[in-house]
Amino acid sequence: xxxxxxxxxxxxxxxxxxxxxxxxxxxxxxxxxxxxxxxxxxxxxxxxxxxxxxxxxxxxxxxxxxxxxxxxxxxxxxxxxxxxxxxxxxxxxxxxxxxxxxxxxxxxxxxxxxxxxxxxxxxxxxxxxxxxxxxxxxxxxxxxxxxxxxxxxxxxxxxxxxxxxxxxxxxxxxxxxxxxxxxxxxxxxxxxxxxxxxxxxxxxxxxxxxxxxxxxxxxxxxxxxxxxxxxxxxxxxxxxxxxxxxxxxxxxxxxxxxxxxxxxxxxxxxxxxxxxx
Length: 277
Prior knowledge:
By secondary structure, the chain is of the alpha/beta class. It has helices at about 45-65, 65-75, 85-95, 110-115, 140-150, 155-170, 175-190, 215, 220-225, 235-240, 260-275; strands spanning about 100, 120-125, 190-195, 210, 230-235, 255.
């Protein structure tokens, strides 16, 4: 939930802020998962949650990477009712040692880095409106819970998030921050994994699949970003750091990694070269 203002936006036409019914949390921001009391959600909001899960259940097997699908099943988020952050916090800790901290929206860069360094992921408990099933511009619980949290269960990607926080907490100048923001955008939010073709596999098929939180949590993104409308390039930190991004325009270029171990190694190499590790 890093503030994306400087690094990109996935839709050309700004969408209105969510008109979701407000169900204020009884807990203040920056509380840890075990201390977060949930809002009292309206029946209409539980219906939105069920509909979002139904849409993703239909699309994700065709577009999301196997690691996401496996992690989603292991996390076992309630698909019928909006889950409580404190219950998700407990489940995450059991599975991978990560916890949850409650926020209401975007988190500035430095606090975000420090949270990841402590293996705490920021989540909101506000849900989008029924008119925003395909995509919501404002930060919301669906994006955080079903976009970001499952991939923390994947060991290499969970370690990537942790290392990202460690490195970010040690940056010394604006160039480092600019690079990390673009790494975040083109991996954690809009990442695609494309494993090499298996030896002896005669099938001429693309193995590209989605893992970025925005991609796997948006029906619109899932069904368009693997088409010819988007150019896909090999991921490298040098390449993404040189991208000119515009928050008001569609991402027409996305980046593919061959594996999560390879992504983690790239971050290690870059941070070591920049004396951030």
